[in-house]
Write a structure and sequence with these properties.
This protein is an alpha+beta fold and 461 residues long.
C-alpha cells in the first residue's frame, strides 16, 4: 500500500492511497468464488455455477463492494501509519479501480489541531461562599407547604392569591378575537397569569356573579394583534377558592419520607437538601467561569466537521424543547443561530482534552462511585438510584465525564486566582452571587450528568 499525504487547507488533509492490483483482484475473485458456492442459477447444479458466469453477472457489483470495504480498512491503516488523528469521517473518492490497474482512492478529512495550553495562572475565579440560615430553612418550608396547599371555596369576593374559575369572552372592535373565549378558565389573582387589567376586573366578584369591563394589553404583549389594544371582556365567575396550607404535622413530614423525629428531623432533612443544592450551584458557577476563561485564553483553529456536528446537536436539542412544550410546526432554524455556541463547545472540549492528557487526569472507580452516591443522596431510595446508574452504562459514562470535567476544574483552580465572594443561599441558587459576565453563560445542564430516574426523588430537594 502506497500513501501520500497532502495539506489542502488549514486542518484539511488528503491521503492518496494505492493498493496493488493483485491484492485488489484477489479479494474480488475470492468474493466471487464464495458467491459461486452458494449461488443457484437455472441450468446449473447448486454450487457448480462457473466462476466466469458469476463474474459476468455480478462482477461490477462485487468490485464496487470490495472497493468500498478496502477504502475503509486501508484508510484506517493509513492514518495509523502516518500518525494522523481524523476529526471526522473522511470523504472517500475512487480514482482508479479498473481491472489491471492498481486500486487508487483519495480520503479527504480534517485532523485535530495541536493545542498549546495557556498559562493557567491567568485564570481568575470568584467563588460564592454562603451558609443556609434558619430563616432560609423557614422560607423553604413555607414554599414546600405552598406546593402542597389545597383550595377551599369561599363565599366572599375574589382577593389577591385566590384561584378563580370562570367563563370569559373578549371582543376587540366588537369581534371576538382569537383566544378571547374560554370556559372553566382557572387562574390565581396576582400571579401574573392574566394581564393586570383582567386581574383587576375580576377582583371582588363572588361565585355566580358576572361582570363586563375593559382591559388594555401591554405594548409588548406576545400577540401582536393585541399589543397595546383595549378590549372588552364579559366574565361569569363559577368558583372562588382560597389557599389552605397544610399543617406541619406527622402526615406532612411523612409525605417527605420523614417517619420519625417530627419537626426537628424534617428541618434537618430540608437543610441537608438545601446545602446540597447550594454546593452544586457553587460548583456549577465556578466551573462555568473556568470554562469561559479557558475558551477566552485559547485561540485554536477548529475542525469544521466537529463544529458542524455540534451545531446539529444543539439544533436537535432546541427542536426537542419545542416538542416538549407542545409547539406545533417546528421552525426551520438556521445553522448560524447555533454556530457561536458550537464553536465554544468544541474549543473548550479540545482544551479540556489537552489538560486531561498533559496532566494525566483520570477518574478512579472510587471517585466515580462517590459522584454517583452524591447524585443519589437527594432521592428517597438512594441505593436504587446507585444501582440504576451502574446498570446503565450510557448514564454512568455521562457521570464519569462530568466527574472528569470536575477534576479538570480542580486542576485549573490549583494554578488560578480564586477570590471568595460573600453570598447568601438565595443569591447562590439563583445565580446572582457572581455577576453574569464573570459566572459565564455555559449550560448548567453540562455541569451535571443526565437526569436520574424521577421516581423516589425527595420533594424537599
Amino acid at each position: 500500500m502506497q500513501i501520500s499525504v497532502e495539506t489542502t487547507a488549514g486542518l484539511e488533509r488528503r491521503l492518496t492511497i494505492s493498493v496493488p492490483s493483485e491484492a485488489f483482484e484477489s479479494r474480488i475473485s475470492e468474493r466471487l468464488g464464495d458467491a459461486a458456492q452458494r449461488m443457484r442459477l437455472p441450468g446449473f447444479r447448486p454450487g457448480k455455477v462457473p466462476l466466469k458466469e458469476v463474474r459476468r453477472r455480478y462482477g461490477q457489483a462485487v468490485r464496487a463492494e470490495v472497493a468500498g470495504e478496502l477504502m475503509q480498512s486501508s484508510f484506517f491503516d493509513a492514518v495509523r501509519q502516518e500518525d494522523l488523528s481524523p476529526a471526522g469521517q473522511p470523504n472517500l473518492e475512487v480514482v482508479k479501480m479498473d481491472p489491471g490497474d492498481d486500486f487508487e482512492f483519495t480520503a479527504t478529512f480534517e485532523v485535530f489541531p495541536s493545542v498549546d495550553l495557556a498559562d493557567l495562572s491567568r485564570v481568575a475565579v470568584k467563588r460564592p461562599e454562603a451558609e443556609v440560615t434558619e430563616s432560609d430553612v423557614d422560607d423553604m418550608i413555607e414554599r414546600l407547604r405552598d406546593q402542597r396547599k389545597d383550595w377551599r371555596e369561599v363565599e366572599r369576593g375574589a382577593e389577591e392569591g385566590d384561584r378563580v374559575t370562570l367563563d370569559f369572552e373578549g371582543r376587540l372592535d366588537g369581534e371576538v378575537f382569537e383566544g378571547g373565549h374560554a370556559e372553566d378558565a382557572a387562574f390565581v389573582i396576582g400571579a401574573g397569569q392574566m394581564i393586570d387589567d383582567f386581574d383587576k376586573g375580576v377582583r371582588g366578584l363572588k361565585a355566580g356573579e358576572s361582570s363586563e369591563f375593559e382591559a388594555s394589553f401591554p405594548e409588548d404583549y406576545r400577540a401582536e394583534n393585541l399589543a397595546g389594544k383595549t378590549v372588552t371582556f364579559k366574565v361569569g365567575v363559577k368558583t372562588v377558592t382560597e389557599p389552605a396550607l397544610p399543617e406541619l404535622d406527622e402526615a406532612f413530614f411523612e409525605s417527605f419520607g420523614i417517619e420519625e423525629g417530627g419537626l426537628e428531623a424534617f428541618r434537618a432533612d430540608v437543610r441537608r437538601n438545601m446545602e446540597r443544592e447550594m454546593e452544586g450551584a457553587v460548583r456549577t458557577q465556578v466551573k462555568n467561569q473556568v470554562m469561559d476563561q479557558l475558551n477566552a485564553l485559547h485561540q485554536i483553529q477548529l475542525p469544521e466537521a466537529l463544529v458542524a456536528n455540534e451545531v446539529q446537536a444543539l439544533k436537535q436539542q432546541t427542536l426537542q424543547q419545542f416538542q416538549m412544550y407542545g409547539a406545533g410546526n417546528q421552525p426551520d432554524l438556521p445553522d448560524e443561530l447555533f454556530r457561536d455556541q458550537a464553536e465554544r463547545r468544541v474549543r473548550v472540549g479540545l482544551v479540556v482534552n489537552e489538560i486531561v492528557s498533559s496532566a494525566e487526569i483520570q477518574v478512579t472507580p472510587e471517585k466515580l462511585r462517590a459522584r454517583v452516591e452524591e447524585l443519589a443522596e437527594g432521592y428517597a431510595e438512594p441505593q436504587q438510584v446507585v444501582n440504576w446508574y451502574y446498570s446503565n452504562q450510557e448514564q454512568l459514562q455521562q457521570v464519569e465525564m462530568a466527574a472528569l470535567e470536575d477534576e479538570v476544574v480542580e486542576h485549573v483552580l490549583a494554578s488560578a486566582t480564586v477570590e471568595t465572594v460573600p453570598a447568601t443561599y438565595q443569591t447562590v441558587v439563583s445565580g446572582q452571587a457572581v455577576p453574569s459576565e464573570e459566572a459565564g453563560d455555559a449550560d448548567a445542564a453540562e455541569a451535571e450528568a443526565a437526569d436520574a430516574p424521577e421516581a423516589g426523588k425527595a420533594d424537599s430537594q
